[in-house]
Fold this protein.
Amino acid sequence: MSFHYILLSFHVLLTFPRIHGQCAFNLHHLTASSKFPANCSQIFGRFTVDQTSGVTDAQLSEIFANVKEIQGVVQIWNTQFTSVNFLKTIERLTGDYLDKSLSIVNNSRLTSLDLPSLVKSNGKLEIVNNPVLNLRSQCSTFHSAFFNRRSVSGNEFDCGCDLIVPFKWSSVKNFPTGCVVLYGNLVLEGSAPPVEVLYRMSAVTKLYGNLEVKQTNLETLGFLQNLEEIESGT
Ligand SMILES: *[C@@H]1O[C@H](CO)[C@@H](O)[C@H](O)[C@H]1NC(C)=O
Ligand SMILES: *[C@@H]1O[C@H](CO)[C@@H](O)[C@H](O)[C@H]1NC(C)=O
């Protein structure tokens, strides 16, 4: 016990000044000359790479080589990257649970993304409109790190589809057909969407979120005929 206590105090003393000093970057636009001190395994800030950054994935891999945790946000927007490997050492993406800790948007040539070390995030995942990005190999990583805190769409393969709003007619006009794995809370309340929209859900086999049916005019839940599993998270 006391040995642990001493170790813990030692750790806190060492890391605290470091965290709030040289490892904090606020808003940081990544470029080829970005540099984090070698002893910053945990960095703080908002880190952005976009069409103006003039940096390659290989250069970023060197810049991030010693980083294991990012407290804040990583944004990869509008780049010409074909692969993103520079986050390969990242184990934790933490920060504001209302914010997106990882946002990958509008990367028209991106085909692969590798986050082999990621175990946990308490923020949200956004991966939108990367038309040639196939996420299949990352599905289980994203599932365990983000569960249904995600907005993932418009990629070649999305690891499921998302419900980010209550299932109301006005908000689900475009609910996709053929959605097998559904992330989000399915809340059916009040007057239900038209039957043809409800039956677009008949492909769903797994719901990662809550199912709530209250005060509706529904006469059947037959449109959920293939639903096998509901997991409501931790
Ligand atoms: C990290 O390196 C800098 C510069 O050498 C030093 O001032 C600082 O004390 C180091 N921090 C830790 C936690 O090792
Ligand atoms: C992505 O592209 C869409 C459509 O062009 C645009 O509205 C949006 O602002 C872009 N997002 C980012 C993060 O650049």
